[in-house]
Structures are given as C-alpha cells and as structure tokens.
Amino acid sequence: MRILSSPFSFRGSGYLGNIYRPYVKILITSDKIDEWIPTEMIVDTGADYSLFPKRYAGLLDINLEKECFEQTTYGVGGKEEIYLYKKGILIKAGDWKRRIPLGFLSRNDIPPLLGRLKCLEILMLIMKNRTTVLEI
C-alpha cells in the first residue's frame, strides 16, 4: 500500500549539475501536545535514525536536558552533539502512523532527516524519476 509519493525538491546548481533532494511532507506529534505539526523531511537512507533541529524539541514540548540522552556522533559534517529521545514521537503520512525514536541536533541549521531505525527500514522506498515513493 502506498503511503506517500513526493517529487524531489530542486535545491540549486553546482559544479556537477542540478541538485534535487528527496523531501517528503509528514505530520509529527508527541505525547505532550495535542496537535499534528506539518514537517518537511529529507529521506536519508544514510541516517541511522531520524534527526531534528533543536527547535523541534520546543515545538514537541520535549526537554532536551531532562528527557534525552546526550551523545556525540560523527559524520560527514564532523562531530555533533545530539540528544537522543528513546520514547519517540508519532509520525503520520496519510492513514499510516508510526512511533519512531529520534535525536535532536544541538543546532537549527540542518533540515529534519527521516532515518532508518523503526521507519525507513520497515518501508519499501522507491526513488525514481526524481520522485520518492514510500510503501508498506
């Protein structure tokens, strides 16, 4: 069953050509708020788990210091301090809902990343003709 289909977003031109990114629009919420927040996320098969900029912790009413485990992670961008929230949040695309664990970055200049753990790893992901399709 298809849960969403979304065209890639053009992000600019570079030396190698035009850059398109696989953004998808989903809804997110936590147990602490009574609303769904529309969110654009990059589908990132290289991300072990989903990551959000720090500002989303406030939107979801999650206290980083009291409710998260602080950890250092290393990636292409170098070393980052992140806050892991094991309890997780709910994500929704169409009629499909799932609770996923996630991390919050200590900064706000990175877009939300939809990662593998308990999310992309259980879905069928198709990227073709600059379109992302997620199916269960």
Can you tell me about this structure?
7% of the residues lie in helices and 58% in strands. With 136 residues, the protein is mainly beta. Strands 4, 5, 6, 7, 8, 9 and 10 form a seven-stranded mixed sheet that branches. Strands 1-12-11 form a three-stranded antiparallel sheet, with no helix packed on it. Strands 2-3 form a two-stranded antiparallel sheet. A hairpin with a 2-residue loop joins strand 7 (69-75) and strand 8.
Blueprint of the fold:
Elements: E1 2-7, E2 9-14, E3 17-21, E4 23-29, E5 37-43, E6 50-52, H1 55-59, H2 64-67, E7 69-75, E8 78-93, E9 96-105, E10 113-114, E11 124-128, E12 131-135
Parallel strand pairs: 5-10, 6-9
Antiparallel strand pairs: 1-12, 2-3, 4-5, 4-8, 7-8, 8-9, 11-12
Brief rundown of the structure:
This protein is mainly β. The chain has helices at residues 55-59, 64-67; strands spanning 2-7, 9-14, 17-21, 23-29, 37-43, 50-52, 69-75, 78-93, 96-105, 113-114, 124-128, 131-135.
